[in-house]
Design the sequence.
């Protein structure tokens, strides 16, 4: 692999993980001020689609024009995203956070198999399989040393694992189905997500809750400023996500997501009083080391040069 392209991909990966972790903090802050999750998501993806459309028309950014055929492909990606969010919420209601994270890490193996079968990725070698096992072993060890597994409904936890394994594959297939720019993909993805989630907002009753919040004075300048900031961050994470998936495998993207969740656990232990034991933190470190070694194993596992 060319050193410049390696540095570029590493920059994208680090940028995406940084924006993802800060986006989690931003979303928590916004939802404390405006506890209407679906409406917040609609504001984020809707504003992003409008801004990108305007910037594309003004020729400031290269944003592909709207085509129905392309919109259909991104519609299914938006459906996949909705299923991922829904099963995640249900899984968190059916088990503790630590158990959900373990099942998320287990989904790496399903993604790796689909990567090989559906996306013609190179078959995992012993080194990459070993590093993936380290990621999972670290997550399982952390849970056993900390709060243990708490499961009330295995069905939703399993469903979330399946959805988490499938989503990067679906997104990768959508990317391969067109030759859009990264800004164009971000525009289509946010537009179709907005269309898919509008009925959801009506069903869950966000409109009524928003009216109540407005009457109580909760929809104020500080809340709107946080919401606008999260909209900007949402555009960035979507854009970087497509750039990363364009340059790495679906399995690598899944490993990144798991490493990000584990880093979030570390931050929680640093910021709050519920510190984990030394053994649990060592297992967290093992999982992060496994994720790092996976990246190195993938870098070394380059195809032989064609004659």
Sequence:
């Amino acid at each position: 692999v060319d050193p410049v392209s390696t540095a570029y991909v590493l920059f994208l990966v680090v940028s995406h993980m940084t924006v993802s972790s800060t986006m989690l903090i931003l979303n928590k802050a916004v939802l404390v001020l405006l506890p209407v999750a679906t409406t917040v998501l609609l504001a984020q993806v809707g504003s992003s689609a409008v801004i990108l459309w305007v910037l594309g028309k003004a020729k400031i950014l290269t944003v592909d024009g709207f085509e129905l055929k392309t919109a259909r492909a991104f519609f299914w990606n938006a459906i996949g995203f909705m299923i991922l969010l829904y099963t995640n919420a249900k899984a968190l209601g059916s088990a503790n956070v630590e158990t959900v994270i373990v099942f998320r890490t287990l989904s790496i193996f399903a993604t790796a198999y689909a990567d090989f079968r559906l996306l013609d990725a190179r078959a995992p070698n012993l080194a990459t399989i070993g590093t993936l096992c380290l990621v999972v072993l670290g997550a399982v060890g952390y849970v056993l040393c900390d709060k243990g597994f708490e499961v009330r409904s295995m069905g939703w936890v399993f469903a979330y694992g399946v959805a988490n394994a499938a989503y990067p594959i679906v997104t990768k297939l959508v990317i391969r189905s067109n030759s859009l720019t990264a800004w164009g993909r971000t525009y289509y993805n946010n537009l179709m997500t907005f269309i898919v989630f509008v009925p959801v907002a009506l069903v869950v009753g966000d409109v009524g809750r928003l009216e109540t919040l407005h009457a109580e004075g909760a929809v104020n300048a500080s809340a709107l400023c946080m919401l606008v900031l999260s909209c900007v961050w949402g555009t960035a994470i979507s854009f970087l996500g497509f750039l990363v998936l364009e340059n790495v495998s679906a399995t690598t993207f899944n490993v990144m997501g798991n490493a990000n969740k584990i880093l979030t656990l570390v931050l929680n232990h640093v910021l709050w009083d519920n510190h984990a034991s030394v053994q649990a933190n060592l297992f967290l470190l093992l999982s992060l080391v496994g994720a790092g070694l996976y990246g190195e194993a993938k870098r070394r596992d380059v195809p032989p040069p064609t004659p």
Notes: The chain has a mean pLDDT of 80. The chain has eleven helices and no strands. The CA atoms of residues 2 and 8 lie 10 Å apart.
